[in-house]
Amino acid sequence: MVTSKKRTQISLNDEVYKILEGISKEMGISKSAVVAMLLVKEKNKQNAKK
Q1: Cα(15)–Cα(47) distance, integer angstroms
Q2: pLDDT tens digit string along 6-22?
Q3: How far apart are CA 41 and CA 50, in angstroms?
Q4: How far, rounded to the nearest angstrom, does the alpha carbon of residue 4 sit from its chain's CA centroid?
Q5: Is residue 21 within 8 Å of residue 31, measured between CB atoms?
Q6: Which residues contact 20 (CB under 8 A, 6 or more apart)?
Q7: Poorest-confidence range of 3-7, 24-28, 35-39?
Q8: pTM metric for this prediction
Q9: DSSP of 1-50
Q10: Number of alpha carbons in the 13 Å side-chain half-sphere of residue 46
């Protein structure tokens, strides 16, 4: 099964970018993977509150 990925562009201030970069390096994954992981985690947290 082939899944397609959508591209998006975001702007981050220096502080947030450094946080993202640090998490990415620490976990050994791409910055986009970090953002995707955190979005899914937040969505799951919101769904658990319902």
Answers
A1: 29
A2: 999 999 999 999 999 99
A3: 15
A4: 17
A5: yes
A6: 12, 31, 34, 35
A7: 3-7
A8: 0.84
A9: -------------HHHHHHHHHHHHHHTS-HHHHHHHHHHHHHHHHHHH-
A10: 6
Residue type, 29: I
User: What's the angle, vertex CA 15, arms to CA 38 and CA 28, rounded to 5?
Assistant: 45
Q: Residue type at 33?
A: A
The answer to whether 34 and 42 have CB atoms below 8 angstroms apart is no
What integer is the mean pLDDT of 22-43? 97
Phi then psi for 4, rounded to 5 degrees?
-100, 150
| Structure token digits, residue 31 | 């910055």
Q: Residue written as tokens 């450094």?
A: 18
